[in-house]
Specification:
Helix content: under 10%
Number of helices: 0
Order of helices and strands: EEEEEEEE
Radius of gyration: 12 Å
Amino acid sequence: ITIPDSVTTIGSYAFSGCTGLTSIIIPDSVTEIESATFISCTSLINVSLPDSITNIYDEAFIDCPNLKTITIPKNCEIDDDAFDEGINIIRR
């Protein structure tokens, strides 16, 4: 999936239940990932987040059992329940 540079927010439930989605690259234009954006993307293993991301909201990456590690910008605010327990969150 290619997200155009004109996108600034990935809306709630935008990719919800996309079980065939394995990887996504989010462009520098995106600043927010809203609630439940990638919920139940059970095949998702790789997410590339740009430094422009400032907020990741609740349940954005819940029920993504194959997503083991995600690298997030240092100044990004993350809701407490944005990720499944056990995911390795790396701040850069």
